[in-house]
């Protein structure tokens, strides 16, 4: 007798992926009466640079309605290679550049191409939420390395990753400027971590999408420290306010990119053509003044938000990661988030970023500065802190 077929269901990879832990709260946003402070999402309120928005592209660009090469427009790859050489030095050519459908698609393809089922990837945490899912989609195991708090020196960082490495470890994920903490990994610490990864013969996935928003010092690029094993992700979304355009790129060794591009071809095929043409205009100079203005605004808003909350100012990026443990009751973090939502404030829960059950992340660039700081004031009151009477946005 033939066996009963398994009914349709989800795959093991899909079952391993986390759903949004606060989607039920977001459903309350539209129904909320009063001002809403959507500080849960990592985005910008600012319009993209003038002259570089896809809808502003000139008429008559040949092939704008068609696919590009799966590697990206050749002229865009050349422009990115030139930009990369100017920023990191060394020899970078078109073969080291793969244009992707945003950094998300790029990192997914990188993990899929370079990590096999059952292998392990070390994730410096707190970390960007989706990288865990990318590792699980590959059938691999994400290993959290809680590290990015306090004064992280080179020795402590190397000890932390060394304590969790196994014979199954194949890669290390680093993110600086960091989402969600707003911390920068110092040049010495990053060099020590990459040197350790080289000795261990590991791949390095470097998430550098906030490269233009380092406030406490210059951003340190990973690729020139170990160009033979580093795949670095970059993005128009964070740098130029073009999240909806879905365009970014990877910088890496050509042999690795030749494998990664296969995954890109089997998912998005090629990055949006209009967005690639917008990227060409941005890299030709249309985005320079925009970034300078946005960086100054973000730094000022982040510093003021931190002052009101009584936490250190962000060193880069667009986030603060706040411990709310003293304000939690028996309902735990979700109860705290529900109370915030009742006042129109929406925050991202700490467990989205690793094993941090008493933290929340807020994005101070998602809405105009004055609105963001009014939302911060809601959080301040929830934390039972005295509200300062002066400062930006009061």
Largest sheet: 7 strands, mixed
The strand count comes to: 12
Oligomer: single chain
Count helical runs.
Answer: 13
**Helix-strand topology string:** HHEHEHEHEHEHEEHEHHHEHEEEH
Alpha-carbon Rg, integer: 21 Å
Question: What is the fold named in CATH at topology level of the largest domain?
Answer: Aspartate Aminotransferase, domain 2
What separation lies between the terminal Cα atoms?
Answer: 76 Å
Which range best describes the helical content: under 10%, 10-25%, 25-40%, 40-55%, 55-70% or over 70%? 25-40%
CATH class of the largest domain: Alpha Beta
Count the domains.
2
Q: What is the molecular shape?
A: globular
Your description of this structure?
The protein is an alpha/beta fold. It has 2 domains: about 130 residues, Aspartate Aminotransferase, domain 1 (Alpha-Beta Complex); about 230 residues, Type I PLP-dependent aspartate aminotransferase-like (Major domain) (Aspartate Aminotransferase, domain 2). About 35% of the residues lie in helices and about 15% in strands. The strands form 3 sheets. The chain has a 7-stranded mixed β-sheet with strand order 2-8-7-6-5-3-4, with helices on both faces. Strands 9-12-11 form a 3-stranded antiparallel β-sheet, covered by helices on one side. Strands 1-10 form a two-stranded parallel ribbon. Strand 3, helix 5 and strand 4 form a beta-alpha-beta unit. Helix 6 runs parallel beside helix 7. The chain is globular, with a radius of gyration of 21 Å.
